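Deliverable D5.2: sample structural annotation.
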Amino acid sequence: MKQLMALGHASVCADANTLSVTGKVDFDGAAAMAEAGGDWLKSRSRGEEIILDLGAVEDVSSAALSMMLEWQRVSRSAGLVLREVRLSPVLAQLTSLSGLDALIPASSS
């Protein structure tokens, strides 16, 4: 797995078809993380299936939701097939509370 960026409290990594995040996604780093992940998504081939793995995200805020939605938007724009979004329990709870769970192909880790 290739590390795309790291902050003191979180990192964004990617492998063949999976973009993953670990750690705490907050307002201090979410924009930079969204950009790093978005650049990786834009580098993929049109029609490629991808997975967004946020199963190791901890202590989330609405910034994590914004990042996840931005990656979904970039995926659609790049013509990618979003096969699955893996959510940590805390992120799945926040997604459900915000009413966004119906908008993503999610599975809780």
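Annotation notes: The helical segments are 30-42, 62-77, 89-97. The longest helix spans residues 62-77.
The annotation will be released with the project's public dataset once the embargo ends.
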